[in-house]
Design goal:
By secondary structure, this protein is of the alpha/beta class. The protein is 45% helix and 19% strand.
């Protein structure tokens, strides 16, 4: 059978990314231009700045991706592009580019849900992985526990009722003046701290599958404020370790509970927080105990990239889905939604 070549574009937040894939799961190139340094001084992503940078970067990133994959635009079988969720202006840059390419080259266009892209990163990493499985999506903007019933078929079991998990990491790091994005910094500091030093609350709300991080976040902020008021020393390593432990314990336990109750033998992690070493260790330990396989992508595929978008787009493409020039950005697109 002829190989299928996917060209994928991602620009939903602060990474301008283009990837070329062969048969959906083999990366020929995966170029990521991150604007992280630029947004650092603002303590978070500034939407207007992100859109402008995407416009400046996208042609170069595309050229590099084609060059590294050693192909030309004519070799592509279809184009996959993130159309939501994300920042409207940022999404529009990648989407307009993808539409222009699809139109001028006369190639099929497939719009991809960014969150479904995160889940699909696992297919690239683990060549033998097939649905069904449970996936725990933990990123800067999302926290979902989902049943992946088939390629492109998702059922949400639970979601965060307030902050996303990554957002909670970022806010605590910011409160301690540690910089942006906070997740990787907290992760690094936590390794040198005592996770039992501070008793932060665990939100198991209703024993169901939803999450809440606002209580934990407030408890950590209150702890920091109280220490400052009393002029007492804050051991950032201990705060990081105790906060991380409280966050990952709930995430891991709920994912295991979902797999056990719904009868799945595999859990995948997806999204930026899937890089977290505490979460990986905790869920792997519980997985061993409950006989559940735990899988996660390597760090470069956990955070935003276009290869994951190409993989999700490939499965949409072979199932017959096509989009036309009316495809628009949907900033609040939900998983499983078309
Ligand atoms: O998936 P992602 O790149 O972007 C979104 O789609 O949101 O996730 C970014 C988030 C940020 O909140 C960042 O702090 C978090 O992932 N993150 C981490 C780690 N690496 C990235 N959080 C905890 N531990 C990490 N090692
Ligand atoms: Zn993302």
């Amino acid at each position: 059978m002829k190989d299928i070549i996917t060209l994928a574009i991602e620009s939903s937040c602060d990474e301008t990314a283009v990837s070329v894939l062969k048969n959906g799961r083999e990366i020929l190139s995966n170029i990521i231009n991150t604007q992280m340094e630029l947004h650092k001084k603002f303590g978070g992503v500034v939407p207007e700045v992100a859109s402008r940078k995407h416009i400046e970067n996208i042609d170069d990133v595309l050229e590099e991706a084609l060059k590294e994959a050693n192909i030309t635009l004519n070799d592509i079988d279809h184009i996959a592009v993130t159309y939501g969720p994300g920042l409207a202006g940022a999404l529009l840059v990648g989407l307009s580019h993808a539409k222009a390419l699809a139109y001028t080259l006369n190639k099929p266009l497939v719009g991809v849900n960014h969150i479904e892209g995160h889940v699909s990163a696992n297919y690239i990493e683990h060549k033998d992985l097939k649905p069904p499985f449970i996936t725990l999506i933990v990123s800067g903007g999302h926290t979902h526990l989902v049943e992946v019933k088939n390629y492109g078929e998702y059922e949400i079991l639970g979601r965060t009722r307030d902050d996303a998990s990554g957002e909670a990491f970022d806010k605590i790091a910011r409160a301690m003046g540690l910089g942006y994005p906070g997740g990787p910094i907290i992760d690094r500091l936590a390794k040198q701290g005592n996770k039992n030093a501070i008793e932060f609350p665990r939100a198991y709300i209703d024993e169901g599958y939803d999450f809440s991080f606002s209580g934990l976040k407030s408890a950590a902020l209150n702890y920091l404020n109280a220490k400052k008021m009393k002029n007492e020393e804050i051991i950032v390593e201990d705060v990081a370790a105790s906060f991380q432990e409280a966050a990952v314990e709930v995430l891991a336990n709920k994912a295991i509970k979902a797999a056990t109750e719904k009868g799945y033998d595999t859990i995948t992690l997806a999204g930026g927080v899937a890089c977290n070493s505490g979460l990986r260790a905790k869920i792997s330990e519980l997985g061993k105990k409950h006989n559940i396989n735990i899988k996660y992508p390597s760090p470069v595929l956990c955070t935003d990239n276009a290869a994951m978008i190409g993989c999700a787009g490939y499965y949409e493409f072979i199932s017959g889905r096509r989009d036309d020039m009316s495809l628009n950005a949907v900033p609040n697109l939900r998983i499983g939604q078309r």
